[in-house]
């Protein structure tokens, strides 16, 4: 194990020593730390989106700290340690890439040769690898005696709901339950929007309206999948676009000594159009 990792593990152990460690670190448990791991993962994604690679280095460090923190708490309970975490993911990566590694875990340019039905297919591109990955995950669940044999088994409920929707759709698609083309998705989207509009007009209850809006969002994820657009990235771009234009609206209003709450909706929309026109044509957002 490299010296920097050993140093980090030592720091974490010191922070968790009773009486001499950090009071905040000592108070934490798996449940209290879970939101921080999620937050750090999103900050990694944000740094990538902004092209901030110095920031990415820092954010990856923060994310690594979450792994080290959880491993330290597990070691204190006699469950596992950091080495076990690293060994488990190494074993999984070798097992899931039989086209790269042989049975001894050595890279093999001739195609691996690990045993198992999921390893028999030749992997020629990223899409084929994704299908092989899912097949191996299913095989592993079956070998572990998982009673849930559904094609949807094993999709965690801890994911953001749009990500879970995407995984559900991919699993269903893998067994043939999918629209044949994107035009069918557009048709379904129009249908769901109409049903939501109908619910709003007739006031049939909040739960029913929530169902219909949920259906719209689910189809939007499906539309992104068929269009090969990352839903999360698309939403981040939309958020960034709205924030940028709204802040420019505020600036434009301030130039005239006005504030947005003082303006009518028509005046605000006029400022929005001005903000759109002022954006550079090559702006990627």
What does this entry show, briefly?
It is built from eleven helices and no strands.
Characterization of the model:
The chain is mainly alpha-helical. It has 4 domains: 3-90, MazG-like (Helix Hairpins, Orthogonal Bundle), CATH 1.10.287.1080; 107-143, no CATH class; 161-229, Orthogonal Bundle (Helix Hairpins), CATH 1.10.287.1080; 232-278. It is built from 11 helices and no strands. It has helices spanning 3-15, 23-27, 30-50, 53-76, 82-96, 126-143, 161-174, 182-202, 206-226, 231-255, 265-278. Helix 3 (30-50) runs antiparallel to helix 4 (53-76) and helix 8 (182-202) runs antiparallel to helix 9. The longest helix is centred in the C-terminal third of the chain and has 25 residues, at 231-255. The radius of gyration is 25 Å and the shape is globular.
Key terms:
single chain; 285 residues; mainly alpha; Helix Hairpins; 67% helix
What is the C-alpha radius of gyration, as a whole number of Å?
25 Å
The first-level CATH class of the largest domain is given as: Mainly Alpha
The unreliable regions are: 114-121
Number of helices: 11
